[in-house]
Structure formats: structure tokens, C-alpha cells
Amino acid sequence: MKPAPIGSAYKFQPRQIVCLEHEDTCLYTEVIEVVTSRQVCWVRPLMLVISEANRDALTSAELLTLYDLRQGADLVWPTILFRAALDTEVIPLLAKLDNLDANGASTPDVHKQLSLFVRKIWLAYKETF
Questions:
Q1: Please, is 57 exposed, middle or buried when counting C-beta atoms within 10 Å of its C-beta (0-12, 13-18, 19+)?
Q2: Which has the closest alpha carbon to 97: 58, 52, 45, 55?
Q3: What is the top-level taxon of the source organism (predicted)?
Q4: Which of 41-50, 54-63, 65-74 has the lowest mean pLDDT?
Q5: Which of 77, 69, 81, 79 minimizes the C-alpha distance to 109?
């Protein structure tokens, strides 16, 4: 993951969707507020997307596991870790999120996945926190 350039990172606007990428996982969040003086961003998680590249040479399709985080807790994280999410990447994911059937991941699974992701980010970027 490449952190966003400092000059552009603080131009996030409330209600903008931003992404935090690490390895095979993307955390999509909605910006609530940017606290420029502390270089942090208050965000509301929307979804966690874990991609598992299909290594079969015959296809380049990716398998995605989508976790709905809309009922979870907000986060306050360093702004530099986020990048602006593109509409073309977010809209199809939001459509999938709305179409998740009742047999989707249970709440404990969702919280566990987010907790694991938060831990990975913290370990990878300790100096940023």
C-alpha cells in the first residue's frame, strides 16, 4: 500500500468514500470529519473487501469476500493511510453489499475480520499511529 501524498490527503470532504488498502484487503469508509491539526480522519466503515486472486491461468477473475460494516463503530485513523475511492470501484461493491442475502457473514465474523484488519494495519504502520 502506498500512503496518499500528504498534500492531497487532507482534502478529503465529509461524506466522501475513502479506502485503506493492505495486502489483499480494502476497507471502504465514509469520511465524517478530517482533523487537520492532528492529521487524522474520523471515518465510518462501510465494508471490508477481501480479494483472493484466482491463480488459474485460464481466468483472471477474482473472488471477493464482502463484509458489511455499516452497523459497526467509527474509527479515527491517520489520514495519510487513506486514498480517495473511485466511483467505478465503489458503486459495484455497494450494489453487492445491498444484495447480500440473509445467509451472509454473521456479526461476530464481521467484527472478527475488522479486528484482524485493524491489527494488521497497526502492526504494519506503528510509526504512523
A1: exposed
A2: 45
A3: Bacteria
A4: 54-63
A5: 69
C-alpha cell at position 107 = 456479526
Distance CA 28, CA 73 (A): 13
Report pLDDT for 10.
Answer: 57
Closest CA to 84 of 26, 24, 23, 25: 26
Average of per-residue pLDDT across 107-115: 85
pLDDT at residue 5, as a whole number: 45
**In 10 A of CB 20, how many CB atoms?**
27
Q: How far apart are CA 34 and CA 109, in angstroms?
A: 29
CA separation for the pair 34, 54 (Å, rounded) = 37
